[in-house]
């Protein structure tokens, strides 16, 4: 992989999760543009910089030797990449504190550098949290590849920070430079909430949760077919989002032992709040993680999964395939993986490569629910 050449450092960077012969880089022209701009403006050695959504740690690794850097984002895999890339470039593990998006960051900051996320609600929540965290004369600069930079991102910066100036395009990247002005203390519209009838639940959804305004149609297709009355099984909701599958399963299987895991810190925060509201103090493990990578082999009887088909802006089935592999490793012999997927993704054929038996449990015009036995 090519090195990331910046005015601050030459870096050897990797993405997460690991993928053999990964054709994608852990940085792009928007990262390069941000760092060049920072270098041109001049960076004081004692400057405090907040990085938001620094995908795989490219910005943090470049700046860590030169100033005081804090990184914040909603991806466990992004936080993992930051740690691996610090080590890979001989930088101290503690040189860049990482703050999950589910927790507040503490300023004051002289610079805020933002990679505009795919979910603009996350950007809005982050900008709201910047209120009162900027030092006098602070500068806020957002960046993105033009094809992924919607007009609404600039409108949010103007609404919550101040007047906006857009840069010229360089290598198909653009900067949005906001000048902080006094603003009334904003009130966050997050988390949002919606209700289900079956099961009867009210679900909280923090800003970066998938399908924040209502139940996604894949999960809606899956819920009526969740297995029931299976006793004290050890069950994981893999890629749990707001926790709806795991919570619904737990309600109809009172003896089951549940684990809910997602790589989004805000999803985990939502799932924890929703479990508490629905099931009180019933024992559960809810964690941010790289899927079931940390789950002991042969430690689960059942895995439920509505797999994602994108990571940031990259669409594909790599993450789903990896989740299927993780599920197989974690399941006991005879254990089952239940998934919902779009018909056109062909998960049936993929699961047959990993599992002893695969059958269709149910189908809608758009989705299939599959059961794979180890």
From TrEMBL:
It is found in: Cytoplasm. It holds the Pfam family RLMG_N. Gene3D superfamilies: Vaccinia Virus protein VP39. Residues 1-181 form the RlmG N-terminal domain. It comes from the Bacteria. Its main location: cytoplasm. Coiled coil: none annotated. InterPro entries: DNA_methylase_N6_adenine_CS (IPR002052), RLMG (IPR017237), RlmG_N (IPR058679), RsmC/RlmG (IPR046977), SAM-dependent_MTases_sf (IPR029063), Small_mtfrase_dom (IPR007848). The keyword Heme does not apply. Keywords: Cytoplasm, Methyltransferase, rRNA processing, S-adenosyl-L-methionine, Transferase. Its EC number is 2.1.1.174. It catalyses: guanosine(1835) in 23S rRNA + S-adenosyl-L-methionine = N(2)-methylguanosine(1835) in 23S rRNA + S-adenosyl-L-homocysteine + H(+). One of its GO terms (cellular component) is cytoplasm. Residues 201-371 form the Methyltransferase small domain. GO terms for molecular function: 23S rRNA (guanine(1835)-N(2))-methyltransferase activity; nucleic acid binding. Specifically methylates the guanine in position 1835 (m2G1835) of 23S rRNA. Belongs to the methyltransferase superfamily. RlmG family. This is Ribosomal RNA large subunit methyltransferase G. It comes from Pseudomonas fluvialis. The lineage of its organism: Bacteria, Pseudomonadati, Pseudomonadota, Gammaproteobacteria, Pseudomonadales.
């Amino acid at each position: 992989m090519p090195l990331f050449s910046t005015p601050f450092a030459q870096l050897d960077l990797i993405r997460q999760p690991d993928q053999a012969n990964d054709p994608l880089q852990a940085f792009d022209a928007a990262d390069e543009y941000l760092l060049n701009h920072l270098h041109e403006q001049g960076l004081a050695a004692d400057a405090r910089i907040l990085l938001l959504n620094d995908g795989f740690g490219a910005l943090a690794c470049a700046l860590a030797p030169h100033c005081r850097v804090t990184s914040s984002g909603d991806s466990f895999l992004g936080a993992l990449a930051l740690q691996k890339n610090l080590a890979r470039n001989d930088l101290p593990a503690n040189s860049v504190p990482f703050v999950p998006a589910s927790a507040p960051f503490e300023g004051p900051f002289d610079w805020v550098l933002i990679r505009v996320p795919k979910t603009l609600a996350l950007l809005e929540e982050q900008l709201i949290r910047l209120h009162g965290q900027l030092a006098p004369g602070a500068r806020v600069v957002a960046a993105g590849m033009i094809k992924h930079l919607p007009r609404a991102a600039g409108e949010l910066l103007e609404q919550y920070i101040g007047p906006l100036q857009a840069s010229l395009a360089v290598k198909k990247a653009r900067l949005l430079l906001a000048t902080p002005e006094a603003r009334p203390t904003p009130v966050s519209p997050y988390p949002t909430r919606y209700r289900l009838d079956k099961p009867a639940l009210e679900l909280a959804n923090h800003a970066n949760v998938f399908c924040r305004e209502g139940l996604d149609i894949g999960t809606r297709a899956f819920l009526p077919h969740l297995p029931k009355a299976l006793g004290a099984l050890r069950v994981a909701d893999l890629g749990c989002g707001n926790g709806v599958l795991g919570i619904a399963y737990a309600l109809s299987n009172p003896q089951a032992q549940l684990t809910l895991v997602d790589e989004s810190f805000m999803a985990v925060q939502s799932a924890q709040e929703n479990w508490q509201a629905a099931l009180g103090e019933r024992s559960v493990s809810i964690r941010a993680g790289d899927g079931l990578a940390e789950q002991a082999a042969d430690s689960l009887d059942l895995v439920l999964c509505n797999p994602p088909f994108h990571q940031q802006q990259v669409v594909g089935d790599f993450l789903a395939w990896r989740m299927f592999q993780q599920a197989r490793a974690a399941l006991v012999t005879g254990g089952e993986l239940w998934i919902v997927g779009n018909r056109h993704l062909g998960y049936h054929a993929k699961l047959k490569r990993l599992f002893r038996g695969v059958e269709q449990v149910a189908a809608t015009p758009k989705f299939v629910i599959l059961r794979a036995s180890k």
